Amino acid sequence: xxxxxxxxxLAVIASLVTSGAIAKAEEYKVGLLLPFSGVYxxxxxxxxxxxxxxxxxxxxxxxSDTITVDKADTEADPASxxxxxxKMVLQDKDDVLVGLVSSAVxxxxxxxVHQSKTPLIVANAGNxxxxxxxxxxxxxxxxxxxxxxxxxxxxxxxxxxxKKVYLMAPxxxxxxxxxxxxxxxxxxxxxEIVGETYPPLQGTTDYGPYLAAAKxxxxxxxxxxxxGSAAITFVKQYKDFGIGEEIPLYGSGFLTSxxxxxxxxxxxxxxxVALHYVPSIDTAENKAFQEAYQAKYEGKLxxxxxxxxxxxxxxxxxxxxAAGGDKAKFKEELAKVSFNGPRGPLRIDPATHNVVQNxxxxxxxxxxxxxxxxxxxxxxxxxxxxxxxSM
Length: 391
Ligand code: BEZ
Description:
By secondary structure, the chain is α/β, with parallel strands linked by helices. Helices cover about 40% and strands about 20% of the residues. It contains 13 helices and 14 strands. Strands 6, 7, 8, 9, 10, 11, 12, 13 and 14 form a 9-stranded mixed sheet that branches. Strands 2-1-3-4-5 form a 5-stranded parallel sheet, with helices on both faces. Strand 12 and strand 13 (about 355-365) form a beta hairpin. Helix 6 (about 155-160) packs across helix 7 and helix 12 (about 305-325) crosses helix 13. The model is unreliable at about 1-5 and about 15-20 (pLDDT under 50). Bound molecules: benzoic acid (BEZ). Benzoic acid binds near residues 101, 124, 126, 127 and 146.
């Protein structure tokens, strides 16, 4: 080997890298912060599955840069989640955090990611403030905001001739924000809220007393938010309680997510909900995504949670590509990504860093031994007002 020549070649490469003429290979460390236990356990594994599929699909476009992933269980517990986020950033030196399912957990980690300037891609938690009054250049939300999903349902349900509605949701930020967004549009269109109740998020196993109170208020409809194991229990008990015949059930689509609607089965019949993703979206992008997901994960339907994981991976990869090996630029590029994915067109609003996307109003019907989800209306390009956000 000619050491002189090799040394000279290395010096040329080093000067090209330093001058930026060629990019040096970077390792990007991703910390997945998701619930793998507690009421939202199943949601975390759907997001992780979607994220891994996204890495597989878009990772080959990375060139010499690499991504490594570590993960931690947030349960639905704000205090321990903050400690885990700090460990990922300060000790494990992760470049970007991805995940968070509970609005309360997002509220708990917000100040830390803002002050440490750590990019956080929110893959579920809808906490309105995170892209409103408490927005941050470091927080990019690829999932939804609580008001974004529920806002279209107020005018829509009023237009269906429902005059009196009873509200029900778990007693924490997401539950209250989702009901508030519905209430605003419903009341502005002539509707009346005849009562509301907020059971505890963790540990509610018997919705009987809450359903009895709802029935006693004599509404035309009940509008709810429940997700995860709470949604499964609630929908089954709604059916067992026998009020569905007289008082139809509406809500945000987490109620009958593709992650667990097969477990709810016939109990989900005749419920109508709104969400940013439903597996029956009739586009080539969605069909290809569902096919790939089902092939990888034993025929399971991909849910809105899986889509958020998939799109988060795409966001990370597209930002890495655009950054050309510059990690500071990577942070800026995250908020500039836009694409047409499984849920339809997606872009990040530069004013708030919340996602702008379609909301689908769809009906669940029990047909031939399975739940069929039919889209009744697509509300295009739903965008939040800045709501106090100043970047
Ligand atoms: C939330 O806490 O923001 C949330 C949790 C599950 C589904 C949707 C929203």
